[in-house]
Write a structure and sequence with these properties.
By secondary structure, the protein is mainly β. The chain has three helices and 18 strands. The protein starts with 5 loop residues before the first helix and ends in a 12-residue tail after the last helix.
């Protein structure tokens, strides 16, 4: 369904200065109609698609969609860009069908840019599968969220450095990531990261201590009850797990050697906090069960 809405006429910029390679852009907008959120705008360029939307939750109000990158992997010089807008009161949960694989760069960097704009009362749950950085990849990831009023964001990010199961470590290459959250024009979260395959932080005890999987689960919204955070801290994970309640953000961190372990920990946390964070019991996307 395609409707003209004020917000998607002014979708956030998805990318600038696209690199030589296989570029792709996906624009999505969601609006609340009655008790349901529905897609009201979809435009794609290049190999990025979104599958049919579902309303699998008992409330019937949350729109679930799966974003697909048909090539399955990102090569040097490729550039992916997402522009997402949620109208007032809209609630969308977006995920992906599998890992995003970033291949050896061969002298050309690759990038992904996510720009999302949430109007008052909107909720976005951005819960993709893991990102795998192959040895020799040169990857730049940019995530920018603009929240208005009481909009809420649940954001998950799991990154695998190399492929240890195949005997491959992230020994060469570059990982650059910049994540920012702005509420009503005020910066509330900024996390720049620059890590080379030769960086001592990969093995240092004050860095990744030799681990190959790092993850962040973040909720931007009202402060969660202290007893709920305490309950979350009792979760036993196959890796290191830490949780912090900041003034405007609740943040969980994972450090280990398994993407499955990271997802398991984060999805258990998501099930615990979702009723308080967005007012609904957790209903996992169907693709997580396949």
């Amino acid at each position: 369904m395609m409707l003209s809405t004020p917000m998607h006429r002014d979708l956030p910029t998805a990318a600038t200065g696209l690199l030589p390679g296989w570029s792709a852009r996906l624009e999505l907008a969601y609006a609340r109609h009655g008790e349901r959120t529905i897609p009201v705008h979809r435009r794609h360029f290049g190999p990025l698609r979104v599958q049919k939307h579902f309303h699998p939750e008992p409330s019937g109000g949350v729109c679930h969609q799966i974003i697909v990158h048909p090539p399955g992997g990102i090569a040097g010089g490729d550039a992916l860009a997402f522009a997402i807008a949620l109208e007032p009161g809209a609630h969308a949960l977006l995920t992906s069908p599998g890992a995003a694989k970033w291949y050896r760069a061969h002298g050309r960097a690759a990038s992904q840019t996510l720009n999302a704009r949430l109007a008052e009362g909107a909720v976005l749950e951005w819960l993709p599968q893991e990102t795998i950085l192959f040895d020799g990849s040169d990857t730049s990831l940019h995530n920018h969220f603009e929240l208005a009023g009481d909009a809420r964001l649940v954001y998950s990010d799991v990154v695998c450095l190399g492929r240890p199961a195949a005997g491959e470590r992230f020994a060469t290459g570059q990982w650059r990531q910049d994540s920012r959250i702005v509420r009503d024009g005020r910066l509330i979260w900024a996390e720049p990261l620059r890590l080379a395959g030769s960086d001592p932080l990969l093995t240092s005890r004050i860095g990744l201590a030799g681990h190959s999987v790092v993850g962040t689960l973040l909720f931007a919204g009202p402060k969660l009850p202290a007893e709920l955070t305490a309950l979350c801290r009792e979760l036993v994970a196959d890796g290191l797990l830490a949780i912090s309640q900041l003034p405007e953000l609740w943040v969980a961190r994972f450090l280990g050697d398994s993407a499955e372990a990271a997802h398991s920990a984060f999805r258990q946390l998501w099930r615990l906090i979702r009723p308080e964070a967005v007012g609904l019991d957790a209903v996992a996307p169907r693709i997580w069960n396949t």
